[in-house]
Amino acid sequence: VQLVESGGGLVQAGGSLRLSCAASGTIFSDCAAGWYRQAPGKEREMVALISSDGMTKYTDSVKGRFTISRDNAKNTLYLQMDRLKPEDTAMYYCTALNAPAPGGGYSDYGGQGTRVTVSS
């Protein structure tokens, strides 16, 4: 199973980025999936989650600015990030929770991350 993130970069405060996470070997539509981030010197925190039936959940600091979505046909997870702030600077990781494993059963999977830097 591979989860490959893309879309990170450097953006000015107030700008937007869209992160993508392409999955192979598992199916996003059959599991909950989400985005986590880890800023330098801080613990990893959940940013957004989407359930298999499309329910979403966000950490308070990104509500109204970030939108998580999923394209089942492309087996890809997205995070639209608007009105970015310097405190959003972090490595962003996608994750598939309790996802179908290739050999049967279920497991959690994560990607290698994509860096987001927001300048003031």
Descriptive overview:
The protein is 0% helix and 56% strand. It is mostly beta strands.
The separation of the N and C termini measures 37 Å
Parts with pLDDT < 50 across at least 5 consecutive residues: none
Strand % is over 45%
What's the helix count? Answer: 0
Helix content: under 10%
Number of strands: 11
Mean of residue pLDDT values? 95
**Structural class category:** mainly beta
Main sheet characteristics: 7 strands, mixed
Structural features:
56% strand; 4-stranded antiparallel beta sheet; 7-stranded mixed beta sheet; mainly beta
Summary of the model, kept short:
0% of the residues lie in helices and 56% in strands. It is mostly beta strands. A hairpin with a 4-residue loop joins strand 7 and strand 8.
Topology:
Layout lengths: L1 E5 L2 E4 L4 E8 L7 E7 L6 E6 L5 E3 L7 E6 L4 E6 L8 E11 L5 E5 L3 E6 L1
Parallel strand pairs: 2-11
Antiparallel strand pairs: 1-3, 3-8, 4-5, 4-9, 5-6, 7-8, 9-10, 9-11
